[in-house]
């Protein structure tokens, strides 16, 4: 079958054997696989195994036709305090097995996935071609669950208008918050407006989400946060130091939280909640998915994903397209 792997720092289309599901796994026919900024960074830094198919944002269908999202990180299945408590995103074993990084992922015609990671999409149906967006939505859902913005008010600012930031904004809007997005590019601002996230207003915010990952973004986040507010760091910093503006953080007594991937909370799995966000708000996919390519156009797809200034937000590979 066709699959995308990172060889010599470049994403390439390869012919590989079709996966054979093991115990506790099912075969998924992939309908959409999103390109994450993490894929771009890991390729640049040489962190991707050339023998592993990339892609952790995955949606498709089971062999009986059921539309599903695949959660790429699942509990390790061992006696593990992290996994038992729902924090399988912090389990070293689970993290090493993430689809698209430690095991074959979804930029392929088929992927073998753990049954525990399958999320049926009864409310999406034909929208499964956009449902790979559920994975980045789950990152936003997870961070918001940790921050619990409802406890301190409902005014949320997201700094960074890429897919991660817009997904966090969509999740916050779904929760009923007043949301604004501070974005760099026109296409990002237009997408924020479409999902109901307005322009940055006067006053301070109860929760400020850093989805940009730069010292400048963190300084702006601390400036925009109210006294006693919360900074939620969702961006990946890729080996660089996190530099916080000491004065604003200390004198405002800001709470600093970080969020990575997703897990399970008192109300269930974050990825299930993210699927519910997309099912209830299909305009989110229409606003964020800006490009769609077949697997054969992998070079063009990754080049487009790197050109945010030209309007790319979420680029999706569709193995069913030709």
Along the chain, the helix and strand elements come as EEEHEEHHEEHEHEHEHEHEEEHHEHE
Radius of gyration: 19 Å
| Helical percentage | 25-40%
* Low confidence ranges: none
Separation of termini? 14 Å
The counted number of beta strands is 16
Q: State the shape.
A: globular
- Average of the residue pLDDT scores: 93
Given helix and strand content, the structural type is alpha/beta
Tell me the β content. Answer: 25-35%
Question: What's the quick description here?
Answer:
The chain is built from 11 helices and 16 strands.
Structural account:
This protein is 29% helix and 26% strand. It is built from eleven helices and 16 strands. The strands form four sheets. Strands 3, 4, 5, 6, 7, 15 and 16 form a seven-stranded mixed β-sheet that branches. The chain has a five-stranded parallel β-sheet with strand order 9-8-10-11-12, with helices on both faces. Strands 1-2 form a two-stranded antiparallel ribbon.
Q: Keywords for this structure?
A:
11 helices; alpha/beta; globular; five-stranded parallel β-sheet; 322 residues; seven-stranded mixed β-sheet
List the helices and strands and how they pair.
Elements: E1 2-7, E2 10-15, E3 25-35, H1 37-45, E4 57-62, E5 67-70, H2 81-84, H3 92-96, E6 110-114, E7 118-120, H4 134-147, E8 155-159, H5 163-174, E9 178-182, H6 186-194, E10 205-210, H7 215-224, E11 225-233, H8 246-251, E12 255-258, E13 264-265, E14 268-269, H9 270-280, H10 283-288, E15 289-293, H11 298-305, E16 314-317
Parallel strand pairs: 8-9, 8-10, 10-11, 11-12, 15-16
Antiparallel strand pairs: 1-2, 3-4, 3-6, 3-16, 4-5, 5-7, 13-14
């Amino acid at each position: 079958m066709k699959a995308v792997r990172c060889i010599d720092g470049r994403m390439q289309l390869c012919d590989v054997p079709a996966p054979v599901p093991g115990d506790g796994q099912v075969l998924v026919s992939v309908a959409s696989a999103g390109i994450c900024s993490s894929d771009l960074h890991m390729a640049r830094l040489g962190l991707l195994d050339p023998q592993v198919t990339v892609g952790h944002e995955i949606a498709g269908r089971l062999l009986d036709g059921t539309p599903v999202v695949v959660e790429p990180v699942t509990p390790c299945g061992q006696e593990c305090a992290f996994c038992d408590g729902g924090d399988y995103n912090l389990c070293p074993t689970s993290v090493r097995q993430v689809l698209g990084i430690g095991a074959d992922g979804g930029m392929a015609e088929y992927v073998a996935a753990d049954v525990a990671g399958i999320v049926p999409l009864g409310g999406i149906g034909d929208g499964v071609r956009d449902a790979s967006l559920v994975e980045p939505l789950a990152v936003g859902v997870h961070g918001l669950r940790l921050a619990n913005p409802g406890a301190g008010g409902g005014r949320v600012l997201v700094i960074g208008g890429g897919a991660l930031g817009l997904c966090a904004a969509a999740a916050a809007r779904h929760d009923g918050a007043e949301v604004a997005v501070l974005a760099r590019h026109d296409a990002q601002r237009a997408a924020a407006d479409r999902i109901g996230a307005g322009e940055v207003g006067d006053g301070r915010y109860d929760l400020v989400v850093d989805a940009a990952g730069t010292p400048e973004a963190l300084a702006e986040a601390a400036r925009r946060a109210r006294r006693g507010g919360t900074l939620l760091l969702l961006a990946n910093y890729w080996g660089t130091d996190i530099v916080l503006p000491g004065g604003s953080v200390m004198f405002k007594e800001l709470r600093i939280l970080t969020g990575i991937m997703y897990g399970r909370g008192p109300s269930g799995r974050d990825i299930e909640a993210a699927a519910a966000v997309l099912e209830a708000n299909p305009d989110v996919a229409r606003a964020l998915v800006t490009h769609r390519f077949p697997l054969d156009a992998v070079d063009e797809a990754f080049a487009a994903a790197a050109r945010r200034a030209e309007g790319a937000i979420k680029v999706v590979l569709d193995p069913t397209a030709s």
